[in-house]
Structure formats: structure tokens, C-alpha cells
User: Fold this.
Amino acid sequence: QVRLVESGGGLGQAGGSLRLSCAASGRTFSNYAMAWFRQAPGKEREFVAGISGIGGIIRYSDSVKGRFTISRDNAKNTVFLQMNTLKPEDTAVYYCAAKIDKRTLAVATTQRSYDYWGQGTQVTVSS
Assistant:
């Protein structure tokens, strides 16, 4: 079992930055691929960014590419999402997710691929 706890959400301004963290516990962290998803009011949960267990493979959604950066510190069992140049449309609940890394050369982007989820953290961007 893997337990995920997000932190770092809050209120940001358009053009500003926020950094989310997700602390994991329970298993060898580097065995897990990690991802961030988000869900805006009235919308489906969507993939934002994902990173392989060792960190060599990263993928972003088109909507955040060039503005957000996902990274991980396996020594601290933590994955991060640095969000720059925030836009009001980034407003959503952000969820951290984990899955066993099968060492493929791809980052999974679908919700059903991930087995463990955090409780979510609210990010609100004002214009």
C-alpha cells in the first residue's frame, strides 16, 4: 500500500507560480511512476504530468507544457509540480497518483493506469 499526501496548493495570481509536493510512504518510492492529475469544477479529471520511477521519462499535457515542471526526489519520497506562468484555467483540485513502474518507455496518462491517489489539493488562480 502506498499513501500519498499532497501539499502546496492555495491561491495564486495569473502569471505567478506555485509549487505542489506529494509525499509518499509505504513502499520503495523509486519503484513507482508518479503523476499529477487535476479536476476543475464540472470537468473530467485530466492528466497534467507524469514521471518514471527513476525520473528519466517525463511527459506533460499540452496545456501545461513549457509552464509546469514535474520532478522527484527519491531520497525524500517526494514528487513535485512546479507551476509557473499560472493561468485562471489552471484552477482545479490537483491529485498525486502512483503506479508500479514497469520500466516501459512511456508515461501512463489515464486515470485507470494509476493504483494509488492522494486526497487532492486545491489550486485557485485569480486573474
Remarks:
- DSSP finds no helices and eleven strands in the chain.
- The mean pLDDT is 96.
- The two ends are 40 Å apart (CA to CA).
- Residues 4 and 118 are 5 Å apart (CA to CA).
